[in-house]
């Protein structure tokens, strides 16, 4: 029997409770996104704050790093560069400009810049070298002092001993007077290497001598970047522990824990195998059907 309280009050209570139920159900159920996230791109392991595609990783990194057809790419205002390695223990990654020179092959290359607002900075291992520069270049202005004279002879002579210098119109073992080990006036935030302004044909970056400073064929060419690792949070750790990958969703780019089937939640993927199996949805429908029948019976009883 129905308790001796107002039927109108009962109906009002049920009507007010149903929106709350719908809200809770919508918050718990995962929201589908386009595609899914992966923990590798080609042969490179992809971990937070990086992601394999849009909606994966942290949004501050997604605009710079993405996986394109199995190749992890890094984008700046001057071009798209391949990511050849990520060292998560030291929070560093190596990028390679496809037009950058190396000992085996030298060619005319474009400029390089690093966005000042990006979560990346140059590491101290980089040695930028400008090749085939005009003798009238501002690099050689004594008042500017942009070339590191101590390193110039060793590094420049090593590079100019490479057969690849013919690719930029120089003879092998050419005088290093057109070479500059470049020291940027801006080291902490942002970086710009403007080759047309500096009147140089090409550039390269050496981040390691490979244990043999005298053999430029063993040098490691590329640009070493340090990334900000302070983005890792407890909610991301919980997501990864549950088997998900950390990402973001919505216009506000709010946190999302992305499950292997491409759906996501706002916390973690614990229990999602049960919820997405169809069992949870059938229980929801049964509860709603029961609530609807109860409401219909109460209305008829007036």
> If you compute it from the alpha carbons, what radius of gyration comes out, rounded to the nearest whole angstrom?
30 Å
Strand content: 15-25%
Low-confidence stretches: 1-5, 8-34, 272-300
Looking at the structure, what is the overall shape? Answer: elongated
Number of strands: 18
- Total of helices: 7
**Distance from first to last alpha carbon:** 15 Å
- In total, the number of domains comes to 2
Order of helices and strands: HEEEHEEEEEEEHEEHEEEHEEEHH
Mean pLDDT: 78
Q: What percentage of residues falls in helices of 4 or more residues?
A: 25-40%
Largest sheet: 6 strands, antiparallel
- Class by helix and strand content? alpha+beta
Strand order of the biggest β-sheet: 4-5-6-7-15-9
InterPro entries: WAK_GUB
Protein name: Wall-associated receptor kinase-like 15
Keywords: Membrane, Signal, Transmembrane, Transmembrane helix
Domain Wall-associated receptor kinase galacturonan-binding: 37-96
Outline of the structure:
The protein is of the alpha+beta class. It has helices at 7-28, 59-62, 149-160, 195-198, 234-241, 272-275, 279-300, and strands spanning 31-32, 40-41, 44-45, 65-68, 71-76, 79-87, 92-96, 112-114, 120-122, 127-131, 180-182, 191-193, 202-208, 220-221, 223-227, 245-249, 254-258, 263-265.
What would you note in describing this structure?
The chain is α+β, with helices and mostly antiparallel strands and 302 residues long. The protein has helices spanning 7-28, 59-62, 149-160, 195-198, 234-241, 272-275, 279-300; strands spanning 31-32, 40-41, 44-45, 65-68, 71-76, 79-87, 92-96, 112-114, 120-122, 127-131, 180-182, 191-193, 202-208, 220-221, 223-227, 245-249, 254-258, 263-265. The chain has a 6-stranded antiparallel beta sheet with strand order 4-5-6-7-15-9, with no helix packed on it. Strands 1-18-17-16 form a 4-stranded antiparallel beta sheet. A 4-stranded antiparallel beta sheet has the order 11-10-13-14. Residues 1-5, 8-34 and 272-300 have low confidence and may be disordered.
């Amino acid at each position: 029997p129905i308790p001796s309280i107002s039927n109108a009050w009962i109906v009002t209570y049920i009507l007010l409770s149903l929106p709350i139920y719908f809200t809770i159900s919508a918050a718990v159920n995962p929201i589908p996104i386009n595609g899914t996230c992966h923990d590798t791109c080609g042969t490179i392991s992809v971990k937070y704050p990086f992601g394999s595609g849009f909606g994966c990783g942290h949004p501050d990194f997604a605009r710079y790093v993405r996986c394109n057809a199995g190749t992890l790419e890094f984008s700046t205002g001057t071009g798209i560069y391949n990511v050849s390695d990520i060292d998560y223990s030291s929070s560093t990654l190596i990028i390679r400009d496809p037009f950058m020179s190396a000992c085996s092959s030298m060619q005319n290359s474009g400029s390089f810049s690093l966005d000042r607002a990006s979560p990346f900075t140059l590491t101290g291992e980089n040695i930028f070298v400008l090749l085939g520069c005009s003798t009238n270049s501002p690099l050689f202005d004594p008042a500017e002092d942009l070339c590191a004279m101590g390193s110039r002879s060793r590094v420049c002579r090593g590079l100019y001993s490479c057969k690849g210098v013919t690719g930029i119109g120089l003879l092998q073992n050419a005088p290093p007077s057109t070479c500059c080990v470049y020291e940027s006036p801006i080291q902490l935030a942002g970086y710009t290497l403007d080759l047309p302004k500096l009147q140089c044909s090409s550039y390269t970056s050496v981040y390691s001598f490979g244990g043999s400073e005298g053999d430029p064929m063993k040098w490691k060419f590329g640009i070493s970047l340090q990334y900000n690792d302070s983005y890792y949070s407890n909610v991301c750790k919980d997501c990864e522990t549950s088997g998900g990958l950390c990402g973001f969703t919505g216009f506000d780019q709010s946190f999302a824990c992305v499950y292997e089937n491409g759906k996501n939640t706002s916390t973690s993927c614990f229990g999602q195998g049960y919820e997405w199996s169809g069992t949870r949805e059938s229980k929801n429908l049964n509860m709603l059907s029961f609530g609807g029948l109860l409401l219909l019976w109460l209305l008829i009883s007036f």
